[in-house]
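Appendix C reproduces, verbatim, an entry submitted by the partner laboratory led by Prof. M.T., so that reviewers can inspect both the input and the predicted structure.
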Amino acid sequence: MEPVLRRFCDMAVRGGRLEVVTAGGNRFVSGDGLGEPDVTMRFTDKAAERALVLYPEMKLGELIMDGRIVLDRGTIYDLLELLMRGRPGGRGVFGSRLMKKLRRAALALFSRNGERRARENVHHHYDLDHRLYDLFLDVDRQYSCAYFARPDMTLDEAQQAKKRHVAAKLLVEPGQSVLDIGCGWGGLALYLAGVAGAGRVTGVTLSTEQHEMARERAAREGLANRVEIALEDYRRVQGTFDRIVSVGMFEHVGAAHHQEFFDTAARLLDRDGVMLLHTIGATGEPGPTNPWIKRYIFPGGHIPALSEMMPAIERSGLRLADVEVLRLHYAETLKVWRERFLARREEAARLYDERFCRMWEFYLASCEAVFRFEDLVVFQLQLTHRNDVVPITRDYVAERERMLADLEAGTGREGRRRTG
């Protein structure tokens, strides 16, 4: 088995230095041996060596979680950087083209997310102990890509900038109604009402933990009369809205439900309305979600390519008014999350256990590496029913961001009220 393992590692690692210690105590080095990262990976049993070679996309994370791969030098992120760096163009260091085609075919058959399964998938990740998220998220609990308008921004500043950027593109006017699909813990909904001046914001989530906390926050901030948080599937929402926003939720819809999502959005959006969809996406060809992520972190999830979204958007009758690609913003967000989590890792271990901590570190590190070295980005799609609803240049985005920043600081609040 060791010759096969060595060949496998030589193919996977191009630069840097990966020292492998086999279960039998032998050592070999893969990579060019130059520079960083410098990682030593040790197997605790021979079955772990076979498992990694046969199904690396799943087993690397599992074996690290289970303590059957131990890093004697370097971190989980260092190992993933060794595997991903210098391989531009697509997801997946491991796996043949044939395997990827087979998994893509399986995706079309088995990626059904009806209402019951969607609720179960959300519960799996978002209804974890709320104290876990306090360990690494910002003060507003924004669990999606931040917007680093300046490289020296703190996480709190970058998440505030994200809300400001989204609100600017939505062109929210005082008194308007807004639907927030997948509202999380309510931070964006509260911002749209409290700062941007929306008259009524309806947030929907399938997470009981998020629902309870978002309602408590709305009451605490005196916005319960203008911010309604519903424990409801977006497909059941009725009425029409001036604005619709969805941040970090579309990735959970599943490829089989893209058409249903955009048809629902088209039904709910007023004819003069604006929608902003903020979603993780792939700039490469469509492909399946990493199987480890799908099993342990986000069951039912699928990262869409633009080529997968656009046919559904076109058939829904919605029009693409603008698209922005946020490159590396999520890598920087995940870097901060990972560092904050590791700084408070002992607290996480008290909430769960060591295996969970290894799983969570692998999740944050692998996602950061994919956004930094492979083809994942964040798309912001602005959608309308008509092509004359939004300005024909992007100048308004910066103008509105400045206005919203003034409102956040309190300097523009009275002028905002008078316009309503």
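DSSP finds 18 helices and eleven strands in the chain. Additional entries are available on request from the coordinating office.
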